[in-house]
Amino acid sequence: MMSPELADVQEARDRIADSVHQTPVMRSQHLDAHTGAELFFKCEHLQKAGAFKARGATNAVLSLEESEDVAGVATHSSGNHGAALAMAATIRGLPAYIVMPANASAVKKSAVAAYGGEIIECESTLAAREAMLASVLERTGAVVVHPYNDPRVIAGQGTAALELMEQAPDLDVIVVPVGGGGLLAGTALAVKGLNPRIEVVAVEPEGADDAFRSFGLGSLQAQTNPNTIADGLRASLGELNFEIIRKHVDTIITVPDAAIVDAMKLHWTRMKQVVEPSGAVGLAGVLEHPERFRGRRVGVVVSGGNVDIDHLPW
Amino acid sequence: MMSPELADVQEARDRIADSVHQTPVMRSQHLDAHTGAELFFKCEHLQKAGAFKARGATNAVLSLEESEDVAGVATHSSGNHGAALAMAATIRGLPAYIVMPANASAVKKSAVAAYGGEIIECESTLAAREAMLASVLERTGAVVVHPYNDPRVIAGQGTAALELMEQAPDLDVIVVPVGGGGLLAGTALAVKGLNPRIEVVAVEPEGADDAFRSFGLGSLQAQTNPNTIADGLRASLGELNFEIIRKHVDTIITVPDAAIVDAMKLHWTRMKQVVEPSGAVGLAGVLEHPERFRGRRVGVVVSGGNVDIDHLPW
């Protein structure tokens, strides 16, 4: 796999421009006062299909050669990437086969179904997901679009940071949640390619801290038995992602689930924005490590808003 | 009391411009497809203090003569106007005395307190509120700013519609919730003053339908024992409000609480916006009376977002 570069992120932006939203950047006087920082929230919960994942999935689907006789696209996903890929597949009129753990949230399953994706359930382990995906590929002849360990997906996810740097000039730091590492790797490529002076800080749940450990040890560590409310961040960091992250990311910090829930509630009550746990991890990082951000201009990527409002974590 | 006119709304806009937000207008592809209309949501849940009430309260406070020796401002309110008046009072450095029914929501009480307002609790009947307010005025010498039956408040509330007509040109109809009638009267003045071709449709909960009855009968009917989830719309229509509404509003429709909850959930899940029950009443009207709106460009005022997220109505 070729590692993507800034130019790939820029090309992705042109490729997906007509298919995804340029999401707004929101401010909050209350949260600025609360943190002592100037916070610029990049609202990817307002993205199509409710998460930044639409960017990478759309870039991957639109990167398929028009001439290719593609039988469909397939992936495994706990939710947001699945819905995003199903949505992107409709642009090319392709079937989408989405392998989902049986314990994926109902709202994420119904989003996949709403875009016409075919859901194939499996156990929630990485091994079970990969085995089921292999069998789906064999049965359907579909092309796999991995949720994060894919250069087209990484380049697509980086387009949010390109927009954010234009919408909020002169940022000192950009804060991004990390799970599999697609958003973080794409963001790091975009930010360091355009303005290496901007710090890139990743935030990870304590209960799924493989990126934190991998970054510290300098070698890829697997995530076994993740235990966090942030269901979008339970995946193991990808190899391609890790190579980019170790090169371009400045630091990775971790946050407990309690801080994630607090941040989520602040998004809801103060900004009136429905943000899912994984989407609130950036703000949780700012709240947990205030000294790092005080007095600075901080871009925070709010990565998703797909919550089951009938089952809230409080 | 002088009845306000379009010019008062326009002056209010200039007066409050530096003190309140010009809120954004949001679209939703899903809700457009669902209703067959083009919907333009005026996001007053993103207004300061979380509701359009900031406009009227700020206009009232800033209309007090600078030279006047004002001892403070006071009102009775189930919540959003109280928080808005407490917020507006801080602009002039005035104390704010807010009479609230003991059963007002915790989140609305804490908003008043957060702006430094002094809360005085009373029974939830209109008579009890007015008696308590009278005693507060006697004790403090404060100036009363009624939540809706006040020309300065009506003019202030109308500024949201002035913005909406610029942000979403060529609307066919503007849909507004009605409780005491401040927002509706102000909107009607703004809309009919500038472009009488635009239809003004008010939406009211079935369980607090005094505006609907008053409008139909041509004389002001009191609201006794309101029974609706939309706690911001339980008040009785004001006299001044009714005079403006009967002159300038095209129609009033009612919606059951079930439709309000459905609309609220759509705001949350599809638009990722935290909207309170009263704030979702406009969309509820569109959903309940689809034939009235299909194929038209519809402005919908989303009036507030102050929900107690620990106690959701589902």
TrEMBL record, chains A, B:
UniProt-listed InterPro entries: TrpB-like_PALP, TrpB-like_PALP_sf
Cofactor: pyridoxal 5'-phosphate
Gene Ontology terms: biological process: D-serine biosynthetic process
Pfam family, any one: PALP
Domain Tryptophan synthase beta chain-like PALP: 18-304
A GO molecular-function annotation: serine racemase activity
Keywords, ordered alphabetically: Lyase, Pyridoxal phosphate
Protein family (similarity comment): Belongs to the serine/threonine dehydratase family.
Protein name listed in UniProt: Serine dehydratase
